[in-house]
Amino acid sequence: MNNLSLIGKIIIRGKLYLESPLIIGSGINEFIDIEVLKDENGMPFIPATSLIGVLKDYFKNNISENIGDDSDYFWGMSEKINSVTQKSIQSSFICHDLYSTEGKINIRDGVCINPINQTAKDKGKYDFEIVDKGAVFDLFWEVTLREIYNKDIFRRIIATIIEPLMSSKIAIGAKTNSGFGKVALKNIEVIEFDFSKKDDVYRWLKKDLSHGISYLDAKQYISYSKKIDVFSIEAKFALVNSIIIRAYSEKPDLPDAVNITSNGEFVLPGTSLKGAIRNRALKILKTVKNDGAEQKINQLFGIAGENEGKKKIKSRVKVEERVIRNTLPELQNRIKIDRFTGGTIKTALFNSMPLWSGNELNESVIVNISIRKYKNWEAGLMLQVLKDLWCEDLAIGGEKNVGRGILKGISALIRWQNKNQQERELEIKAAGKGITFFMKKSDETEQAVKELNEFAKSIQGVMA
Amino acid sequence: MNLIFELKLLSDTLIGSGEGWGANIDSDIVFDDIGLPYIPAKRVKGCLKESAIEIVEMFENSGIKFATNGDIEMLFGKPGQMRSSMFSFPNCYLSDYESNRKWLEWLKTKYQELITKEIILGTFTITRQQTAIDNNGIAKVHSLRTKRVLKKGSNFSGKIECNGIEEHLLCLLSLAVSNLRYMGTNRNRGFGCISCNLFDENNISLNKKYINHISKVI
Fold first, then answer.
1. Which residue of B has its CA nearest to A38?
2. Measured distance CA(A262)–CA(A379) in Å, rounded
């Protein structure tokens, strides 16, 4: 027996549920800007490479100890030693493409807004296909165990990558910073084969995968002591009157515009929200000082697409796509008036179906913003944007000219880490015309508010 | 004695030719002069040999006294020896290859502009495009590449020729066929998931027969 001989297999099966829309581009874009990847029956699927790439990145960034060669044995590696020789190891981790039998494909469209005059940019219209949330994909992993691998380390690596999938910390595909591609692993089944047992060899040859258990008993590698430098805001808002993120219908008997839906529910798309936040953040910075504001915003919110050879930057701001709750759609007919005669303009009847809350106390919209590797002034900037959203100043969505999209703050949960590496969690609640602060450790509230104030003040420092 | 080897593609599969196709495709599959894809015998034999080695390792490991490394040499031959292996492995073709080929050759002469190599190849394949993402989360420059892959669901088969084979070698071969589950490029990343079967002249599945046989040995 040589040291590469086969000693066992671990099979992981499960279902991967889409919790927000998914975009994995096929690279073939004939009719639409981004077409999603489909198999020959037109059903969407997730290529193994897309999932493994994200998991590998997550693993390498979060691992707390050095596990040496076994990491390379598990993930595979390829390294140029010099111009002639190359060292490579085949990965022992096999992942199948993830197919679905019921995934629905929809088309989303959006438009790029010019931050100066708040109107659509010329040629700024874009559209893309999405796999709607609720789709279920079959996941199948096979890990080959050989004599020289450390079986326990392998089991721990698997446990480490299963956990974030099960607690939906992982997003795959494109536009993950706008809330797309959130997945959750469920119905997990672990089937282990130990080839020192005759019965397991027989089961393996027979392809008998029936002896599965629903968990993997191994300790994870993730260390929670590592600094998590994320500043996040989760804020709940009420609608002052109505909101509409327009989606246009092709059928003549339907309203001209309705709110975008995802899997039958009205949503506030991450792209709309992020666009509004970005433009407002730019406006705030420009108010402080005009020079260099755009560059600073690009560094924070990223830059992509064909912009004259500029280097692409990945955004550090992430927003989530959330369902708009406690609202009812209602049709509103409108007409155009001829300014000169005061009469109606012919054929200019139009209608839309915005969402109305009916009560200013209902929690309708949840805004979730987080910044990775944040700097103090960036956190301060987000607080300024939160203030504008909270105080009915920054409207979201379409038909803002007739008062739609105005939000009113109810509560916000702000999380950050202060200079002494302490986790801070401060809650803000609306109280009468002002706000009040809450913290679990109430004696630190004052200190925490002071820290947030320092964040806000540091904007001036950085723009000076 | 002739054995029929069947191979079904459970996912898109890239049996690489090591070549590209003009400017469009970076990694192309193997196909013949009129554009019908096939799996070269060397590929089949190599994969089956590796699978057979795994079977022997599993048996040694679990204490099933059935096959040894010597049996693998008997089955697949040993480099540098006078005696060849007992088996002759075939190229594996799509079902009805011979008649399809004749029809396509006739069509190609009759409708030159309609039936071309690319069109024939396009019926059995799709292209997949990939980029690599760097540590900053953006696509690496010049990393976009295109692969032509066989569509999942295709069936390939070929005749394995052998003369005077001992039964326990046939059993080892059948088990190696059952154990062969991946083939081709990127087989650990979604491509090349296959399921194989071996039938004798009377169309009896040897996989099933010998797996049952093994259960008795155990």
1. B128
2. 30
pLDDT greater at residue A219 or residue A48: A48
pLDDT tens readout for residues B22-36? 888 888 899 988 889
Q: Does A91 touch chain B (CB under 8 A)?
A: yes
β-pair partners for A344: A337
Q: Do B189 and A52 touch (CB under 8 A)?
A: yes
Supply the pTM of this predicted model: 0.88
User: Choosing among B123, B146, B188, B214, which should be mutated to test the A contact, i.e. which has the most A CBs within 10 A?
Assistant: B188
Choosing among A195, A303, A306, A317, which should be mutated to test the B contact, i.e. which has the most B CBs within 10 A? A195
pLDDT digits (tens, 9 = 90+) for A271-294: 899 989 999 999 988 888 878 888
3-state secondary structure of B189: strand
A444 in Cβ contact with A457 (< 8 Å)? no
Inspect the interface and report whether the beta carbons of B218 and A198 lie closer than 8 Å. yes
Asked if A88 is an interface residue toward chain B (Cβ–Cβ < 8 A), one would say no
CA distance A213 to chain B (A): 23
pLDDT digit string, tens, across residues B76-124: 888 888 777 778 888 999 988 889 899 999 998 888 888 888 888 888 9
The conformation of residue B123, written as its DSSP 8-state character, comes to H
* CB pairs A-B closer than 8 Å: 98
